[in-house]
Amino acid sequence: MKNKFRFILPRLLVLTVLLGIATLIIGTIFKLILFITVGIGVTSFVSAKIRKRKRSVTSEHGAISPYPMYAVYRQQQSAIVPVQHAFQENKKTIVPIY
Known about the structure:
0% strand
């Protein structure tokens, strides 16, 4: 019985150490992938916000306005008006369904 422990114990310790190192490496790889994904997401979100702000501040002629573009539109119209209100006709049509 003593000989079996002397035979199995070193191999079991080496196997445990190798599995621990493999787990550490795989865990590090997954953490690195997770951090890269979160970093890309945050960078994308920030760049979209900056792009949206730059688009709202820059006017048609390229000059930078101190007010966002939607403020100019709110001064002109107080209600939402459909764009194609003049083109609505009351034609009755048959729409085939296949």
